């Protein structure tokens, strides 16, 4: 397997009086190509420092970092990355097409016109003639996203991509990012919106005090491994399901059960069927990522 990002024992200590605390205290991380990876953590955990290292804006104090198989300070590697910064600096007197055309030229895209129009349409800004200074926060964010998407980069690094975007716009951004994943791009996301992160990313890393304290697939991080969620067709006999050891969920009419292995899960399902219940859905029960984050941060304290 090839990796879009490979960090080995990566450390960063900022200069200044007393040298400060290490912002990155030895990060080992491999992000597979084509995956959606979400980096989460509390304020000051080191997320921005890690992203800046990926973009060679920050020089690590020690350790190794490879991005798309090369050195992040190599301009040829940088050209294959699309980046949406957390704090966008946009030229307010320009129009969206002018701004994107200038980015396209910087990225070395020949005849950028059609690509600029394509990306503007994807972010819902086609035909937008206002100057950027008159854009709403969400429109500016969409424009920043279009700039990151120009030229179909192999790696997208997105810092709070849905910040300021309304709920329907967020759904559009999610769809757009799933299109990017489907074409084989790697998406590296930094967001405090955990509900967005779980909907976009299949892998999650938790940073706490400069250390990667948990990392893995969403299922491995949030799944209990033994709890399952089930949904039965209307008319299931509640009392008989309770007798068979199923627990109802108060919120949404789903049920849950414990089963440590496929055999015991099969036996559970047989028991449910014996009550006359018809199974509609079965999935591993996932814990809330917020709880997993809180637990990981506490353990690292
Ligand atoms: N330029 C800098 N000089 C000195 N210390 C810095 C600098 N940038 C960040 N730090 C420190 O490094 C640590 C990690 O900061 P970083 O911005 O990477 O965290 P973060 O996880 O991105 O936080 P947030 O969620 O608030 O954006 C913090 O203790 C911060 O104060």
UniProtKB/TrEMBL annotation:
A single GO molecular function term of this UniProt record: ATP binding
CDD domains, sorted: ABC_DR_subfamily_A (cd03230)
PROSITE patterns recorded: ABC_TRANSPORTER_1, ABC_TRANSPORTER_2
ABC transporter domain location: 5-234
UniProt entry tagged with the keyword Cell inner membrane: no
Keyword Transport in record: yes
Alphabetized UniProt keyword annotations: ATP-binding, Nucleotide-binding, Transport
InterPro entries referenced in this protein's UniProt entry, alphabetically: AAA+_ATPase, ABC_transporter-like_ATP-bd, ABC_transporter-like_CS, P-loop_NTPase
SUPFAM superfamilies: P-loop containing nucleoside triphosphate hydrolases
Family, similarity comment: Belongs to the ABC transporter superfamily.
Protein name per Swiss-Prot or TrEMBL: Nitrous oxide reductase maturation protein NosF (ATPase)
Organism: Vulgatibacter incomptus
